[in-house]
Task: inverse folding
């Protein structure tokens, strides 16, 4: 009977249980069911406790500055970067996670995992890249981009606990992709912050974004210049802490 | 399903698939997405009387991505026409411009095709908001 219980717990919680396997075995060999139960409940505590860092997905259209922001946050609090930034859209073609980013705010500390995702779109045309690279590379980039978008959508449905939605504030925020994605995020009841990025640009309009999505908090920033990062971290701590 | 063609821009007619809310309600998510993407792959403009749910939109984006290939299919363009609150008036009424309510239609087409439409004052807005 003990063995059955253990099978169940191993298959359901395998990655975490593995660390505790010696304890589980010890409990089994000693025939101490209560100790096994303790061990399982410690595992489940850890799985479901508030201490688990929340996974915050950084979403938005291609080129909005998601990776630039993810890198800035990661560099500010962990010292290293997450991915490469580029003026060519679809630079990020795989979701990348940075674990345990510990952000200090007003003497409190908030730990999150940051997931930098590929920019979402409904179309990819490799010919848009052929000015910048050989046709073969452009075709590969577009194929990887489509896989990346699908992956980003999958993460959004399954694997994130909150969303930072990054927009280029120099561009019109009312696009079908933005409206659809915000709708998808809302339908999943995920906490969301809208980041109006690139406020260093002359054409930037934060108000246009606030007016487009009045139901959400909008934080202006320049991820590239590092402008207004204090408010960025305050908002992250308040929403995702 | 009802279709309409427009030959006013020359030899290259455009076929429009109109899908009623009633028809959509009978279908499972993947059937809806197949119906939309099959139409789009044929080069048609698909007009939905009722929009998709957020979950369906998310699956539509994912499925579209899986079908993009450099030899022909660049993906889709989605728009809602006209911008405004939706109501329950009839699909045909809205298409024929008999409807003043500002109800919304979801229009989905091949990315390259819709761009062409935009250039000449869009057939779709003509159709949807014809006065
Ligand atoms: N002026 C300005 N440029 C920025 C800012 N943030 C990012 N950029 C630039 O915008 C371009 C795109 O930045 P990325 O961080 O690669 O954008 P992304 O959203 O990750 O793009 P994808 O990975 O392609 O979806 C790069 O050239 C950045 O240097 C900003 O705050 N101001
Ligand atoms: Mg990126």
Result:
């Amino acid at each position: 009977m003990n063995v059955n219980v253990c099978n169940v717990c191993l298959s359901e919680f395998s990655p975490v249980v593995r660390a505790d396997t010696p304890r589980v075995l010890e409990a089994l060999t000693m025939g101490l069911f209560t100790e096994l139960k303790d061990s399982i409940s410690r595992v489940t505590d850890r799985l479901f406790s508030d201490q688990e860092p929340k996974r915050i997905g950084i979403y938005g259209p291609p080129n909005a500055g998601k990776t630039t922001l993810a890198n800035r946050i990661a560099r500010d609090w962990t010292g290293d970067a997450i991915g490469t930034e580029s003026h060519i859209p679809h630079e990020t073609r795989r979701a990348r996670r940075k674990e345990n980013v510990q952000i200090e705010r007003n003497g409190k500390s908030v730990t999150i995992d940051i997931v930098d995702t590929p920019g979402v779109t409904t179309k990819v045309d490799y010919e848009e890249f052929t000015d910048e690279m050989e046709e073969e590379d452009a075709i590969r980039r577009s194929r990887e981009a489509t896989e990346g978008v699908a992956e980003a959508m999958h993460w959004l449905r399954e694997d994130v606990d909150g969303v930072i939605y990054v927009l280029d504030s120099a561009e019109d925020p009312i696009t079908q992709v933005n409206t659809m994605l915000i709708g998808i995020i809302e339908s999943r009841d995920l906490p969301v912050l809208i980041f109006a990025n690139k406020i260093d640009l002359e054409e930037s309009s934060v108000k246009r974004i606030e007016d487009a999505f009045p139901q959400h908090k909008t934080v202006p920033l320049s991820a590239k210049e590092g402008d207004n990062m204090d408010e960025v971290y305050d908002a992250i701590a308040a929403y995702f802490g | 399903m009802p279709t309409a063609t427009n030959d006013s821009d020359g030899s290259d007619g455009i076929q429009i698939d109109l899908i009623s809310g009633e028809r959509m309600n009978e279908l499972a998510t993947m059937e809806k997405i197949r119906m939309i993407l099959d139409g789009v792959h044929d080069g048609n403009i698909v007009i939905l009387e009722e929009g998709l749910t957020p979950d369906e939109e998310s699956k539509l984006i994912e499925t579209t991505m899986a079908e993009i290939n450099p030899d022909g299919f660049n993906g889709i363009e989605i728009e809602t026409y006209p911008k405004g609150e939706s109501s329950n008036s009839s699909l045909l009424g809205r298409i024929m411009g008999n409807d003043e309510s500002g109800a919304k239609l979801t229009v989905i087409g091949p990315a390259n095709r819709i761009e062409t439409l935009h250039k000449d004052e869009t057939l779709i807005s003509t159709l949807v908001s014809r006065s």
Summary: The domain at 53-240 of chain A is CATH 3.40.50.300 (Rossmann fold). Chain A has two domains: 3-50, 53-240. The first strand of chain A starts at residue 54 and ends at 59.
